Amino acid sequence: MATPSSPGTPPDPPARGIVTVDDPDDPRLSDYTGLTDVELRRKREPAEGLFIAEGEKVIRRARQAGYEMRSMLLSAKWLDVMRDVIDEVPAPVYAVSPEVAERVTGYHVHRGALASMQRKPLPAPAGLLTTARRVVIMEAVNDHTNIGAIFRSAAALGMDAVLLSPDCADPLYRRSVKVSMGAVFAVPYARLETWPRGLETVRDAGFQLLALTPDEKAVPLDTVPTGGDQRTALMLGAEGNGLTTRALRAADEWVRIPMAHGVDSLNVGAAAAVAFYAVTR
Known about the structure:
Layout: E1 18-20, H1 38-48, E2 50-54, H2 56-64, E3 69-74, H3 78-81, H4 83-88, E4 93-95, H5 98-105, E5 113-118, H6 125-129, E6 134-138, H7 144-156, E7 161-164, H8 174-180, E8 189-191, H9 199-204, E9 207-212, E10 219-220, E11 231-236, H10 245-250, E12 253-256, H11 268-280
Parallel strand pairs: 1-4, 3-4, 6-7, 6-11, 7-8, 9-11, 9-12, 10-12
Antiparallel strand pairs: 2-5, 3-5
Helix pairs in contact: 7-8, 7-11
């Protein structure tokens, strides 16, 4: 009788959908080209309706959130780790060497696993606000690391939704998704079409607009009622410049986080986490 190690035993069939690719210019890898070119990717990805998930946990969280997979790009050691995903999805899986992956993407893919995912249509802000009580509003936050950090804190600390000004960075850009550890999939978000006029949609939904600023005219955040049935929208500005004058004028109240030792303010990502805890306590 033949055993699994016997010469006469046929080898296991290759996993469904796995294609070995040796040419970095293969057009089937086009979703992954030039991932370090920020300007190119920030325009291309929304236009083509895709985003890139990097790393096993992020890929799995994107799938759990209902995003459809277009393809995966995996180095050999990740084929077994991702075997269950490979078997479940109909999307092609491209197996490449680390050298080919680097030539395609423009960097050394440390985590060895990338997936191209299909975007979903964004909801309308008004619809998003119907069931929310604690909302984050970002104005002109263009640093992808800060975007990811803010989404991660929003998810962890119980914020219900995120609204973005028209000029905010893309939460589904690879760096934002990676920093958030997939939390961008956990908190629903929408983009306001106009600014700051779009804030009227938030006010009309019954929210008080709190502008977070280190200005000395602002009141300590923990003195403002945000509990019970109060619906609160916390406005955050970009690193350095903070909220614009137009945004501050549109707010119902200016609030600040009390500082010590002569420190004037926190990084917007750190400030967001403190403020989220305060308004959801």
